[in-house]
Amino acid sequence: MYQVRSLYEPGKEKHTMSKIAKKEPLCEDIAGKGCGLKKVIDIVGGKWKIMILCVIDNKEVVRYGELNRAVAGITNTMLANSLKELEADGLVERKQYDEMPVRVEYNLTEKAKSLIPILLELKKWGEDNL
Fold first, then answer.
1. Gap between the Cα atoms of 74 and 79, Å rounded
2. 43, 44, 57: which is closest to 106 by C-alpha?
């Protein structure tokens, strides 16, 4: 979309075209299937998932028991379900070792690592505004 405007100079008039920037909406189809924001909220929304990602990011590789102790208030069921969902969504990688007792470690995928700077911005916004 373009707008024609006149620049007034004594004795002559110039016409210029300038592009009017259109504001990008958060979602074209608000909360529809194609909404990228809804997709993000679906995979990292909820009470525990961001906290789980933060703990794994801080420690890089973490075992289930460490996660359970680090995320205050989370139940075993919620931790197990959240980890399964994060793994299914490609944010967390689970590695199981064939040992007795079984040892399982979790780390962030590259996809999750690309989300960390965005979470840091959200954290900063929360510190500044809440």
1. 6
2. 57
> Could you tell me if residue 127 is inside a domain?
no
Average per-residue pLDDT for the chain: 85
Domain interval for residue 91? 23-109
Q: Is 57 within the bounds of a domain?
A: yes
Can you give the chain as a three-state secondary structure string?
Answer: CEEEEEEEECCEEEEEEEECCCCCCCCCCCCCCCCHHHHHHHHHCCCCHHHHHHHHHHHCEEEHHHHHHHCCCCCHHHHHHHHHHHHHCCCEEEEEECCCCCEEEEEECHHHHHHHHHHHHHHHHHHHHC
- Indicate whether this model's pTM tops 0.85: no
97 domain residue, yes or no = yes
- Per the structure, the count of domains in the chain is 1
pLDDT in tens, 63-104: 999 999 999 999 999 999 999 999 999 999 999 999 898 899
**Which are the contacts of 108, defined by CB distance < 8 A and separation ≥ 6?**
53, 56, 57, 60, 91, 92, 93, 116
